[in-house]
TrEMBL record, chains A, B:
<comment type="similarity">
    <text>Belongs to the RNA methyltransferase RsmE family.</text>
</comment>
<dbReference type="GO" id="GO:0005737">
    <property type="term" value="C:cytoplasm"/>
</dbReference>
<dbReference type="Pfam" id="PF20260">
    <property type="entry name" value="PUA_4"/>
</dbReference>
<protein>
    <recommendedName>
        <fullName>Ribosomal RNA small subunit methyltransferase E</fullName>
        <ecNumber>2.1.1.193</ecNumber>
    </recommendedName>
</protein>
<keyword id="KW-0963">Cytoplasm</keyword>
<dbReference type="InterPro" id="IPR029026">
    <property type="entry name" value="tRNA_m1G_MTases_N"/>
</dbReference>
<dbReference type="InterPro" id="IPR029028">
    <property type="entry name" value="Alpha/beta_knot_MTases"/>
</dbReference>
<dbReference type="InterPro" id="IPR046886">
    <property type="entry name" value="RsmE_MTase_dom"/>
</dbReference>
<keyword id="KW-0489">Methyltransferase</keyword>
<keyword id="KW-0698">rRNA processing</keyword>
<dbReference type="InterPro" id="IPR015947">
    <property type="entry name" value="PUA-like_sf"/>
</dbReference>
<feature type="domain" description="Ribosomal RNA small subunit methyltransferase E PUA-like">
    <location>
        <begin position="22"/>
        <end position="63"/>
    </location>
</feature>
<keyword id="KW-0949">S-adenosyl-L-methionine</keyword>
<comment type="function">
    <text>Specifically methylates the N3 position of the uracil ring of uridine 1498 (m3U1498) in 16S rRNA. Acts on the fully assembled 30S ribosomal subunit.</text>
</comment>
<keyword id="KW-0808">Transferase</keyword>
<feature type="domain" description="Ribosomal RNA small subunit methyltransferase E methyltransferase">
    <location>
        <begin position="78"/>
        <end position="237"/>
    </location>
</feature>
<dbReference type="InterPro" id="IPR006700">
    <property type="entry name" value="RsmE"/>
</dbReference>
Amino acid sequence: MSVAKIRLYVDHPLGAGQSVPLSRDQAHYLFGVMRLAAGGQVLVFNGRDGEWLAEVAEAGKKGGTLACRAQTRPLQPLPDLWLLFAPIKKARTDFIVEKAAEMGAARIVPVQTEFTNSERIRQDRLQAHAVEAAEQCGATNVAEVAELTRLDRLLADWPAERQLMFCDESLAAAPAPAAAPHVPEGAPWAILIGPEGGFSEAERKRLAALPQAHPTALGPRILRADTAAVAALTLWQMRHGDWR
Amino acid sequence: MSVAKIRLYVDHPLGAGQSVPLSRDQAHYLFGVMRLAAGGQVLVFNGRDGEWLAEVAEAGKKGGTLACRAQTRPLQPLPDLWLLFAPIKKARTDFIVEKAAEMGAARIVPVQTEFTNSERIRQDRLQAHAVEAAEQCGATNVAEVAELTRLDRLLADWPAERQLMFCDESLAAAPAPAAAPHVPEGAPWAILIGPEGGFSEAERKRLAALPQAHPTALGPRILRADTAAVAALTLWQMRHGDWR
């Protein structure tokens, strides 16, 4: 039996014998683009029930049904990690969301800083990028993309137990600090990537006053925000996450 | 005195009082786009003499001259690190070159593997991306982009002292190996990112037989080649490079 190569995120319960209805877009993709017919195989996941092998039960132009056969993998929980970043140009913002999803962030939060240029994002479009990245990278869950949130409000109400790895390009010349030794294993974390225009003085003060904040340098060169996001996620995953 | 914000790579010797001729493109950028006039300040670097503050001596539509004033930073050598990758779609190939330059690779080598789809690259266009990334990230030198090279030929003639960190998506489930302990400090290295179509059996055998090769897993998810490039460069810089 050949292994199904197509992976599809579905917002529906999965279990042995479970029938899963397809949306119009999913039907178009499976039957129009990928040319699957009845009996064709797909891997599905919903972020809760792991990954399942499913077969096409009905194939139509505007919809269809899958039938779940067997679980292929259990749910592999993502680390409790948020990625906060200030939206930049569209292509680079899309890229950050795709990369954060691939790198295993559980929640992606676009933040509005004082020097953020872009003031609107399309949350639904970014969420679709996160879904596509999860389908592509073999994850069994999908990062949640939040609505654009003001950084000052987020910091004013920062959860007491959540650590914050705060990447600041003004630290580019500083030596990389060692891993934070006093943080309990398994603590929730967030990574904050500085906006390309830098933080304001008020933002810097607020961050400096936050006891959960860990200023972190990402090498001696000044990285673009999208590079910094992948590099910071790598550093975090190696120190605290599921790359260890 | 305000600090010059514009950074420009020039292929010309730099030193106190040195006069630096500008190309037509550079003149267009400085005088047409950035609106600099005589006396305006620019930071220049050439990959050999560090970074210098220079002033516009002559500004014309088709050219101009800068006069070097003072060295602002010495040359900061890049680690002796190559990044080898199989070219993919144009935007993602551009991205890999930009990111490799930002992350401090000294040499970027597009490689043709058995399963590489793209068979041609524009070396000059990719080199221009590397220059732009160096200007942007504050580096004092520019990564060299090589012509497309066949992987089998490269491996057949692999330099004895150069270590090879070889990132293979088939290792995604394997635990990350510890840093290679027997490699001498300061040894030259290369990172090889697996092509999106995977390696062929012959390529796998050749890599397995190479004593300098270090198979490396990049976490439990399957990363796209562009994500893998940034993640692998981060991992390498933290273990062996200038992020320590």
